[in-house]
Amino acid sequence: MGETTKEDVRALRGLIERLALEEIDTDVYRGQNEPGRPGRLFGGQVAAQALVAACRTVGDGLRAHSLHGYFLRPGDPEHPVLYTVDRIRDGRSFTTRRVVALQRGHAIFNTSMSFQIEEEGYEHQAPMPPDAPDPESLPSTRERMEKMADKLPEIAKKFMTGPRAIDMRHTNPPTFLGGSASEGPNHAWFRVCEKIGDEPLEHQALLTYITDMSLLDNIVRPHGRDGDRGPLMVASLDHAVWFHRPVRVDEWLLYYTDSPVANGARGFARGMIFTREGVLVASVAQEGLMRPVGEPEDRSL
Fold it and tell me: Which of 53, 56, 69, 204 is a plausible cystine mate for 29, CB 3.0–4.6 Å?
């Protein structure tokens, strides 16, 4: 699959293993973290592991159709995460679960998920954006990272330029990859770096993980990283995913994202995910904190 290396494949297999979780008691699971990630835990990892924990408690024939979560505290990459599942409701068509992610006794993420049996119904969808270039014509994240490696902090350089389980290719580079301030929507093609199995949960969990990659940058792009009020700090406040149809993350998917509003030190971003054939498979929304660097530490969240 293109420029994939053996290290990329190992990174993908390691990611899949971390998403599998360890059952340590009834409705209690433990998840391990990505090695070498600087700073706080990646929110997409926590949301994806929470989805897997919830799925372990529902019956066959049920598929997740929505996830709504709140990031409560920064996660620590040095400590595993415990996921406790609350079986809110088991209905005939829909099932609901609540999952709390904990580290060292404190909740870092809280989410509700809904599952549905397979049903037939009316159908319509928004059209795929007509102006998205082919993924093969765009540079990969690795290529963009290598060009700006000398500008990265030493603590982030090894992780950011290392193996990549996900091949993501932006039409316009996000601000954390050197992109300048810009208006309007952005496009990014993505897929995992090699073919994987057919287990639907594996694809849903990986999709959930990927939906948190670069989405928040949409609230930064209109202002640029340095902003009129000074350099910006951002943090995810919540994350929501709606799964409209079955999906394969080992085939190219288009992530169409934008940010319609920012106000009150918060910005809102949203996205639609299409197959290469133009089928809308998922929708995403996220709100993020956005403040000038230097705000009082006790107001960080």
Answer: 53
